[in-house]
Design brief:
The structure is a homodimer of 147-residue chains. Chain A has 147 residues and is of the alpha+beta class. Helices cover 47% and strands 24% of the residues of chain A. In chain A, helix 2 (20-30) packs across helix 4 and helix 3 (38-48) packs across helix 4. Chain A binds a DNA duplex (30 and 30 nucleotides) through helix 2 and helix 4.
Chain lengths: 147, 147
Amino acid sequence: MNELMKFETYLRSHGQKMTRPRRVILEAFLGAEGHLSIDDILREAKKIDPGIGQATVFRTIRLITSAGLAREALQEDGARTFEHLADHPHHDHLLCVGCGKIIEFLSPLIEQEQQRIFVRYGFEPRGHMMELLGLCPECQAKERGEH
Amino acid sequence: MNELMKFETYLRSHGQKMTRPRRVILEAFLGAEGHLSIDDILREAKKIDPGIGQATVFRTIRLITSAGLAREALQEDGARTFEHLADHPHHDHLLCVGCGKIIEFLSPLIEQEQQRIFVRYGFEPRGHMMELLGLCPECQAKERGEH
DNA sequence: AGTAAGAATGATAATCGTTATCATTATTGT
DNA sequence: ACAATAATGATAACGATTATCATTCTTACT
């Protein structure tokens, strides 16, 4: 089942309609990689259909996220960003506080332990957000050089 | 060494001054528990000195966080929140997406693995943020009852 | 296919958190 | 005590997000 069909299924099951703007925004979003702000997505969507409005991107990204096709990533420069989950295995982020570089990693051990924690507290898992913050080797070197 | 002294040390070593508003805001912040928004802190600070301004709370919380006496927590209702680190061992959060309840937990296994990841990528650790999102037992029951 | 009912859209205004500005006040080293 | 300079608080400015609303699109029903 592809992403468009998943989205359509989600919409139907929630009494909502599949429309052209929603299709365009989903297509634009899936076609770009990385952490995208609303305006990034709007820009991509306008390439397909210049008539798309910003408000609809806000509304549609919320739906796409609720449908489980995207998740919110870090805030970057005050604006929320999103990344889609198609053809992109689950991962967490290691962020350099110096230059903003983002490294993706996956730790099966951590994933496993998170499941245990959900079970311990009787929670039904709905997702997680994990960001490690540090200084990358390059920025460490830069910092040493300047002292 | 208490928090006030740590803050004063931090300020001096960064060429900044210890002032009455900064003392008041730190005291108000330390005196409250949980995740506090800027306006929460402002409210507490005004109880001690009604003359405190919101802008100074924004500025001072940034300093307190840089000094390592607080860390940013989840965004709640669009506003950033902070929690102080005094007499409060390090922990992560398990958040119920239904009712907003927050459970604190600590997993030495995860902490250990995070260190390994920093080392693997040559990063100098600066902190981390981990939030598990799920549905608590009560909200699960509520959801089952409504269907 | 045609149509009525209601949802979705896009432009715009409104809101709200955060940051910048600036005249006044407080702090510090001498 | 004083001069130099940083900090403050009020307010304006800004930017992201949400609400509003007239118009347009979808859908279910005929």
